[in-house]
Specification:
mainly alpha; two-stranded antiparallel sheet; extended; DUF308_memb; Acid_resist_chaperone_HdeD
Amino acid sequence: MDTFRFTEPGFLRSVRLFLAIAGAITLIAGIVLLIWPAKSAVIVTGIFASYLIIGGLVYLGLAVFSGRGGGWVRAGHVVLGLLYVVTGVVAFANLSAATVTLAIIVAIFIGVSWIADGVVALSLMGHDASRAWTLLYALLGIVAGIAVLLSPLYAATVLWLILGVSLVALGVVQLVRAFTLTQAEAVQTPDVLI
């Protein structure tokens, strides 16, 4: 067995390279989201539509070529496959409308989730040690959820911009980490026997 040491210069270079590449990709993605928010949202929708078409074709392939499962399983695969493919094709037919629709659906999901989280927090209030913090959390969740539901497209736009700012900040920090990583920081793990 060979002993691999995390102190080797090659390992440190690899870690730095990984951090630099990940940081650069994150930074670029954040900048793209901030400079071209509508275009980047359309690209994300296009990727999602591609996923739907590919997933639909996989389901159709399972229905036709899979030897397992009975008639109901195959019928389910056909229905899902057709639904996915049709949805993907419709999304590609009008990417702008699909982007707006997807943004509204995601925002509504977030709003409903926040309201549900607030209601669950309220239901657990008798079991929490800090009722004031639980009540505050529950009320904030419910109010934020209602605010998102009242204007889902605006909420989606704000959340998209927050995502862009977050990606820029994370990318910059990751790049700084890549260029300032020292030998001592890379040696936080024991040797590994290979």
